[in-house]
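Weekly puzzle thread! Below is a chain. First person to post its structure in token form gets bragging rights.
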Amino acid sequence: MVEIAWVPSLTERTTALTDGALAVLCGALAWRMPSQAGRPGGRGQIWTAAFLAMALGAGLGAVAHGWVLPPATNVVIWHGIHLALGLSMALFVAGALEDGWGLGRRVLPTALIIGALFPLASWLAGGSFAVFLLSAMPALVGVFGVYLRLARQHFPGAGSIAAAMALQVVAGGVQASRWGWAGPLPLDHNGLFHLVQMGAVGVLSRGLRQGRYK
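Winning reply:
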């Protein structure tokens, strides 16, 4: 029987804690979406799936950072993290295309296939999460551009969604920065990354509530 133990590093434990909090937040926001959605098949379902994918990625991240796991298990979990986050990026793009031009549901299958290929970038780079984030940046910047245009056209909630995408980009920069915070519960760059992400998904949810659903 394989014994699984907490990691000895305190910053890894706080990273697991912030990842777990992010997973709970995204799961709660996903649960709230159906009550706000309009007709079936609308943008509400796309964004619900996006929050669920983020919750899955963060939940797996909590496991990967919090416990000492066999190397093979750890590799599988990290592939799952990259897959979940790649799919969330694809769903962000589909949501933007739905709001911008009503094309989200048409392109969703193709977007999900491309999102599922995102982990290849990190795999080819030896599992680097930084490389994965870099490969996701064009999607985030593109979605930001769509909602910035919609905000200028007074689309309800678009300004908040654009701000959320900007915060996601900032979160990626924090993760790559190697910053940290020394306090009662010290955080490294990963823990700070998750905190900024929590702010981003909160702002995103606010924008979606303002815009309602088609």
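Puzzle host: Confirmed. Bonus trivia for everyone else. The chain has one domain: 8-211.
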